[in-house]
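User: Structure tokens for this complex, please. No commentary.
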Amino acid sequence: MRWRRHTRHLTGFLVVLPSIALVGVFVYGFIGRTLWASLTDWGKDPSQALAISPITHFVGLDNYRELFTGIIDGRFRQDLVSTVYFTLFFIAGCLLLGLVLAILIDHKPRAEGFFRGLFLFPFALSFVVTGTIWRWLLQPGGGVNQLPTLVGLPPGGFGWLTSRTQVFRFDWNHLPVIAGVLVAVALAAVAAVAQRARNRRRAVAAAAATVAVVAWTVGAAPDIQPLPFPEVHGFNLAFLGILVAAVWQMAGYTMALYLAGLTGISEELREAAVVEGATGFQVYTRIILPLLAPITLSAMIILGHISLKIFDLVFAMAGPDNARTDVPALLMFITSFRGNQFAKGAAIGVVLLLMVALIVVPYLRSQLREGAQE
Amino acid sequence: MTGPIGSAGRWRWLMYLALCLAASFFLMPVYMMVVTALKDPSEISLDTAWRLPTVWNWATFPAAWEAFVPKLQNSFVLTISASAASAIIGSLNGYVFAKWPFPGSRIVFALILFGMFIPYQSILIPLFGFIRSIGLYGSIWGLVVVHTVYGIPITTLIFRNYYVGIPDSLVEASSLEGAGFFAIYRHVVFPLSLPGFVVVVIWQFTQIWNEFLFAVSLSNPASQPITVALAQLAGGEAVRWNLPMAGALLAAVPTLVVYVVFGRYFVRGLLAGSVKG
Amino acid sequence: MKRLGSFVLAAAFASLLAAAPARAQEKLEIFSWWAGDEGPALKALIDLYAKQNPSIEVINSTVTGGSGVNARAVLKTRMLGGDPPDSFQVHAGQELIGTYVAANRMEDLTSLFKSEGWTKQFPPGLISLLSAKGGIWSVPVNIHRSNVMWYVPENLKKWGVTPPKTWDEFLATCQTLKGKGVQNPLALGENWTGIHLWESVALGVLGPEGWSGLWKGTLKMDDPKAEKVWETFGKVLDCANPDASGLSWQQATDRMLKGDAAFNIMGDWAAGYMATTLKLTPGEGFAWAPSPGTGGTFMMLSDSFGLPKGAKHREAALKWLRLLGSKDGQDAFNPLKGSIAARLDSDLTKYNAYLQSAAKDWKSNKVVGSLAHGAVAPESFSSQFGTVMEIYLAGKSPKAAASAARAIADQVGLGK
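Assistant:
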């Protein structure tokens, strides 16, 4: 019997082996090579950049140092800030609109199927198609800005993809302090949650870490000067155009997720709540929304990783030369294929990967641990 | 039907109003696309964008069609080949992870799954070098290989979740009768897999048809899929917008048809992508 | 019976083999960014080539996007991928030399130049721009001028102003025009057109020696003189339309023609746009002057074609290059394109009024190279110059912009 089990194991393994090999090479192997390339100077020397077999030198973390603290790469830093802001607003927008649409559909209007199909269809489109259409709509003096004229008002003047206004601004040199504050707040929240769950060890550890981080933020952080000049970054309002198009495309996806969750909440549960005196509104806020929390989390992770690596939509809507709507994924492409700076492009790729891994890996781990416990 | 709006029909009109507002938001770009595609280039200007065309310029579509037919062909060859290949591999993998686990298979599964999330910019440069070194740069088959490999994680996930729903007793029974791995697959699992295949192929069809980054990096003008052709058409200057709009319509039609006809399966694929363990 | 059958089969097979070479047609793939308005000029050249070589099928691959911003990236991936087009359009000068010649990917065309006698037909200044490492690397088809200021004479008369001769005069005229209700006297377009404007300002502020010094490395980018360029540039931008980044260069020129702006600084391909596409008469529908402060200097750029190593149809490509450098080819192409021929012996009667004046300037003026169009700086610098521009536009600090430019220049080894 044990022999039988061994053959079972072996067979399964062998069948999956080709996929392991392919994914091993194409995902992990290539990530490794990108990582290695980012530690060289490939691209700095024009005679080697495009050569058939380029000669490169190991330079350690130089590329990363330049990206985060070198004067020339201000565009990268703005892209990083832009993408963080964009991700936050994109997730919020999709969750909100998706939830509203799901709740509306949940009320079983007439032509429910039509509405559901309509709200989801943009998801079937390519980002390039979406980007092309919305680019035309959002031209200065174009479609959306002309909408008010249909009701007799003067046309809008907002530069959807071209605005130079920035909000929520901060100086890159203050980043250590800002980071310290954010980390301290997060740790304090962990400590509070652990305390409430009576997990003393974790609560104490988190509290101690909070104190340490606060001490560092107050003491050491203000003296760290990443850049010689003040460099202000913020949320470019030009991203609003991209946000509108992106939410238009993805809100239906969130809606479908929520609808699946809503149909999973049995009718009896709702009836029981009504019987106990809950108003319609309370049924939603006290029972249904909390039950939808895992879906919200799932959606946040998926939307987050899509938005961090967004490329097609920005390329189609604003082109590779519109610095106000630039994102790291696009910058990586231009740096490598236009500027011939392959090592720096690889470094940007690695930073992108780390950002995505930061939200995806914990999620994958928790999902699979859950799966194991079942 | 209880809800914030309640079963009282009084507020139901509010719900319909909200639905109609949302519907117009979602339909507005479609209206714009169709109307602009049908306008004569001289009529397309920013201030008259919303008006219906005075002369219906149907000629845009033959022009766009002519420009796009070879690219459409490329897209079809690419999408169908890569979807089929990644679906078959995914089915076998899913079968293993669901019914024939081995020590460490959960970790292997997670490692494969991670490949679904990586930003492709982090592997683009080595991938480019690799495809070039095996001589497939500029060929549609290079793209087929790439999409097949990077499609393995999601197809494996969908099939694995689907096969988990097949009762173990069915597999056990066959196994006790002496059937091996492939026999069980052929006689038990595969016949039950049709919905799974539909979901996977539809999902992959949509993803691969719509993909842009690999397409723009690894193709040359002869082997370009349609997304690249559209981006280049619309990315120029002094753009005559009727052509890109018609092109966008043509590029969107295949996936929209799939969506409309196979909507149910499409949604299933979408839900499966949320890694519900 | 059997023997007859096999004989027939053999005969059929043989005829198939014999037919095959006749069916195989030689091809030529040329790659350019001459789509849209510049298309007719290229088509004239292709038609001429087809007449001379009826058995060769010409594949015209174009990627739209002014000044080749998009085409260059597409070309890059193809070159890297080992699938080069047979011949491709590239700006003469550092854009080609610093990128592909330095990486040893182009064929040396010196022997072609000698056999066609081109070393005597092109001005020596141009040939030196095309040369590096002992070889000549591309065949110039045309010459364009970058530092041109366009205006509509009627409109200027209406407003009572004349084309300014220095940047200070320009700023004064700008104020006058604003007073007359012209809110944005200078029409500007997106991205690269901003760099195009910058180089006219720089040439006007630094003069031809200073300008060349920047690229030779004798004048540093953060020198106070260079910083002053940014100061002036900022004042000039105040005269431009704020929605510039949404406009293509043609749309900016349209603004000037419509009367929403008074001046438009653009290369003389605008003349081709206005004369050929819009059918305006040079001198009446539009007029020109050198950009303020740059009278007497011809800031040139040249479209040229090279021969990459590993081209699939080398012979067809060489025939193309021979046509490009010939008098007939250049005189068929340039009048439609709105540029002047690189050759000194072109038939000027075929050219319109603007081009004749430009040709005269070409022979008499001081010649310097353009930055925005790849003559004086390699791609590693010019592709990052956009960042410098962004740094300036974001903070309006000449010092920050100058320092950034200096940092990039040092990084790429400009002038070495």
